[in-house]
Amino acid sequence: MKVLTEHISGLILFFALILPLVTLAELTSFLALSVFAPVNPVLITIKQRSPEPIGVTIYSAWIANLGFVTIAVFLAIELISNLL
Fold it and tell me: Would you call 37 helix, strand, or coil by DSSP?
């Protein structure tokens, strides 16, 4: 795990040194959204398998659906704006 962390740190440093700040911010937000996008379908799957676990705050499934759709729209806008 230490080696992976060092590689990621080196990659971040590399991008920070060669990219303009706006490009770095756009790349960071795109990567963060790309990481969180698959989380919402997993939450929906968990909700369907075990709808009411004991001792846990329950939220409606539409929240995870809305999160996924929102992230997908943001990623699509980012991709389309970079292609044009």
Answer: coil
**In the chain, what is the greatest distance between 2 CA atoms, to the nearest angstrom?**
50
Radius of gyration of the chain measured on its C-alpha atoms: 17
How far is it, in rounded angstroms, from Cα 10 to Cα 58?
40
Query: Which amino acid, residue 59?
Result: Y
Helices (H), 19-84: 21-36, 39-49, 61-83
| pTM for this predicted structure | 0.68
Residue with tokens 């999160």: 67
The domain ranges of the chain are 21-83
Residue 69 has pLDDT above 90, yes or no: yes
The answer to whether residues 68 and 41 touch, using CB atoms and an 8 Å cutoff, is: yes
